[in-house]
Predict the 3D structure of the following.
Amino acid sequence: MTTPSPAGPTGAGVPAGGPAAAVLIATDAPPTVPNRKVAGALAPLQLSGEHHLCPGCGHPVAWRLLLEAIAELGLANRAIGVVGHGCYTNIVSLADIDFLQCLHGRAPAVATGVKRVQPDTAVFTLQGDGDLASEGLAEVLHAAARGERITTIMLNNGVFGDTGGQMTAASVVGQRTKTSLDGRQPEAHGYPVPVAELVATLQGSVYVARGAVHNAGSVAKTKRYLKRAFELATSGAGFTFVEVLTMCPTGWFLPTADGPDYIQDTFEQTYPLGALKDV
Ligand SMILES: Cc1ncc(C[n+]2csc(CCOP(=O)(O)OP(=O)(O)O)c2C)c(N)n1
Ligand code: SF4
Ligand SMILES: [Mg+2]
């Protein structure tokens, strides 16, 4: 075994066997770097690191990508977000951009009004799958068909997370929810509604993509999708839509760490990732 020499000024021992030998650190010396994070962890436009979402929730990752995209495109001063109701709505209290909250599912209609009154703004909606696919599906389809110059973002975790994890129109076949304890069965509950595919068929939509936040590669691509969607909508090209698959271990009855694999093994089979439409 290598025996360290007495600790030097840095506190680290020099191995008797020379620099190439294993290094043992003397633990009785003061640390040479502070025992805390040295780089800021807040995203641009993020006011606080505090949120009330569950450990392992995917929404905060999507929030971060959204804020980074807005900041990097220089849209912070003219971005206006319109949210519905859900766990994701907590973004309004920790992001330094303007938000409106509206009735469940109605965000695309409210965003239409905002954009038409203030055409120079970068208007987007942030909605959950319960909000958008279950409560307000007509709103997003009409906004897309009209070619509104807004961006709609749907955070899809396949449950009404905020009210306890009930099944939504986007829950996948076999998914266990509070209202489908034996798993979603097509005979009893029907099939999931693929919102992104529906929006892509409408002439007024110019960009449709589906991303996810369960691994590093998907996180990087999702940010690119968001930036492209904002660029096209703010340039006046038409309606843009980005769906983001997010983890909800609480609503899925899963241990926190199993959330990413559940997206990969289950959601991705129903909702393939990638750009579905690009002008
Ligand atoms: C008209 C109306 N119906 C129901 C509710 C109750 N409600 C509040 S949040 C929520 C769940 C939203 O689920 P989702 O949009 O998927 O967001 P998540 O919580 O999963 O992020 C529901 C049903 C409400 N506020 N208003
Ligand atoms: S219930 Fe689901 S969506 Fe809501 S905070 Fe918890 S993990 Fe996130
Ligand atoms: Mg949801």
